[in-house]
Design a protein that fits this description.
Elements: H1 5-15, H2 22-32, E1 39-40, H3 42-51, H4 58-70, E2 75-79, E3 83-87, E4 95-98, E5 103-106, E6 132-135
Parallel strand pairs: 4-6
Antiparallel strand pairs: 1-3, 2-3, 4-5
Helix pairs in contact: 1-2, 3-4
């Protein structure tokens, strides 16, 4: 028997040590309630919440997504230094950015080979490498 959306959402919040407030549970349900990974923008999640009848402000959506990231439940992928996407899949993996629809999807991890990185400057270490492959239709 599978997990219900409510149980999956509550368990997800508990993994990050977050208190299951009504708004967090509602947004978590939209993000992980069906067990699928997703890439969302704050505006897209706000629209989905509104469509679902949830009373939540865009500022609350932004704050909640940041809290989910800080709790290690999601990661933020920045495209063009200005557009943020939030990813529920937490393993290291590359992304495709579809320019025509401004959407982000997972790219095949096993097909990516990084054979070398530049040395980090003295006193620093590489924390993470983000790979975003931009696609445009021919």
């Amino acid at each position: 028997m599978g997990l219900t959306a409510e149980k999956r959402s509550a368990d997800w919040l508990a993994q990050g040590g977050l208190r299951p407030t009504r708004q967090r549970l509602a947004l978590a349900g939209l993000l992980v309630g069906d067990g699928e990974d997703r890439h969302v923008t704050a505006e897209g999640l706000f629209a989905a919440a509104s469509d679902a009848g949830e009373k939540v402000s865009l500022a609350t959506v932004y704050n909640t997504l940041r809290a989910f990231c800080e709790a290690g439940l999601m990661s933020e992928v920045v495209v063009d230094g200005s557009k943020s996407y939030f990813d529920t899949r937490m393993d290291d993996h590359p992304h495709f950015f579809w320019e025509d629809s401004a959407t982000l999807t997972d790219a095949p991890k096993d097909e990516l080979k990084i054979t070398g990185l530049p040395m980090a400057p003295d006193g620093t270490e590489i924390a993470k490498v983000d790979v975003v492959i931009r696609l445009r239709r021919k």
